[in-house]
């Protein structure tokens, strides 16, 4: 099934009933027994682990949470570029994205309460290849910036509710 088929099918389903546009995602996490930092993550039928590098007390068996956050942003960018290129009829041969983020450990470790624990700066570098003009790819970039869900998470405050049982 092509992206345009997905776009058209979704448009029809949402036009038939606006509630068809509402989706929810769920991810389960559990600390792996006898470890301090290895987390087992389950998403639908998929599983992966999260860890910390040894310099942060981990075993370096996998990427850490902030690396996965950057990976989520980069992956969402690649997918959103493909989606919007198809939606707008823009020819696109290649999409490459590199995401870099700066984080000050003063915030995470609580060494300085005035330092936020999250990223202080995130940079997204996108490389597009195809036969269209630079102006057309700039139009595509604007569409992606307006519609990329993970970019939205990075740019805007999202309500989060935490409960402990």
TrEMBL record:
Alphabetized Pfam families for the sequence: OsmC
Top-level enzyme category: oxidoreductase
A GO term, aspect molecular function: peroxidase activity
Keyword Oxidoreductase: yes
Name this polypeptide is given: OsmC family protein
E.C. number: 1.11.1.-
Keywords in alphabetical order: Oxidoreductase, Peroxidase
UniProt keyword annotation of Nucleotidyltransferase present: no
């Amino acid at each position: 099934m092509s992206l345009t088929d997905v776009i058209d099918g979704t448009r029809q389903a949402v036009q038939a009933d606006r509630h068809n546009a509402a989706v929810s995602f769920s991810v389960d996490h559990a600390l792996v027994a006898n470890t301090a930092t290895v987390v087992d993550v389950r998403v639908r039928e998929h599983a992966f682990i999260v860890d910390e590098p040894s310099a942060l007390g981990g075993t370096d068996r996998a990427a850490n949470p902030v690396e996965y956050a950057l990976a989520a942003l980069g992956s969402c960018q690649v997918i959103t570029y493909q989606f919007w290129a198809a939606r707008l009829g823009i020819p696109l041969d290649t999409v490459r994205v590199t995401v870099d983020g700066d984080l000050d450990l003063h915030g995470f470790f609580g060494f300085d309460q005035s330092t936020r624990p999250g990223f202080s700066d995130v940079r997204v570098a996108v490389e597009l290849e195809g036969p269209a003009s630079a102006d057309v790819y700039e139009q595509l970039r604007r569409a992606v910036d307006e519609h990329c869900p993970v970019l939205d998470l990075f740019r805007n405050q999202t309500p989060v509710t935490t409960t402990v049982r």
